Structure formats: structure tokens, C-alpha cells
Amino acid sequence: MMPGTLDAEWLDIGPVDQLPAMGARTLPVHGGEEIAIFRTATGSVHALVNKCPHKQGPLSQGIVHDTSVACPLHNWRISLVTGKALGGDEGCVPVIPVKIDGGRILIARAEALAGVA
Question: Counting Cβ atoms within 10 Å, is residue 117 exposed (0-12), middle (13-18) or buried (19+)?
């Protein structure tokens, strides 16, 4: 499957090895929104809407810790698995389903194209 190729349910966004461990990349989607795609130190890949529920900080610019990311604005920790704020903070970020197939990252097409507004 080529980058950006659509099938019935999944959007191929590229090879997993181009996403650095403990790092993130962004993907613009419909309506001016962005999805942040994260890769943990153990190699798992997760995707969230790129907005902290607190002050809409760009989560893709935060520091990845195990399966959470710290928002760069006010250090809120957000679970990469559930999208929920951790610790004493409250809020939630939409999670985009992700799978790896043949070394390529696939995200759920319906959520991505809808912008998960």
C-alpha cells in the first residue's frame, strides 16, 4: 500500500521506522485539525487529536513517557492509550485507532477524515 492510500477502513500514513522512538509526527486532517502520531520507547504507536484538553497545547511537541505524553504548555500528562488526563487533571482527547501492517502505520479512516471534531 502506498502512502495516503485509502481502503475501506484504514488510511496508510507511512512506514513506522520513519517515526522516531519517543517522538511524534503530525498529520493534518479535514477542518484544519491535526492528528498527532506517537511512538513509544517499546515501539508501540498511538494517535490522538493534537490538542491538550486543558489549553489546546500541541501534544505532538510534548515529551513521551512510556504510554503518556506531557503537554508542552502546562505539563498535563495525557494517556496515549485512552486519551484521558492523568493524575489530578481532568479531560480527554479523542483517540484515533492505529494498527501496524507490514511495517506501515494505518489509522482509522473515518476518524481521520472526520477530523474527530
Answer: exposed
- Return the closest-CA partner of residue 9 out of 94, 99, 108, 114: 108
DSSP string for residues in 64-101: EETTEEE-TTT--EEETTT-BB-TT---B-PEEPEEEE
Task: Find, among 109, 116, 107, 84, the residue nearest to 38 by Cα.
Answer: 107
Global pTM exceeds 0.90: no
Residues 6+ away with beta carbon under 8 Å from 73:
52, 54, 55, 57
Q: Strand, helix or coil at 27?
A: strand
Residue pair 100/45 in contact (Cβ under 8 Å)? The answer is yes
pLDDT tens-digit map of 58-86 = 999 999 998 999 999 999 999 999 999 99
Closest CA to 52 of 93, 94, 111, 97: 93
CA-to-CA dists, residue 27 to 4, 57, 70, 87, angstroms: 11, 16, 19, 28
- Interatomic CA distance for residues 96 and 27, integer angstroms: 12
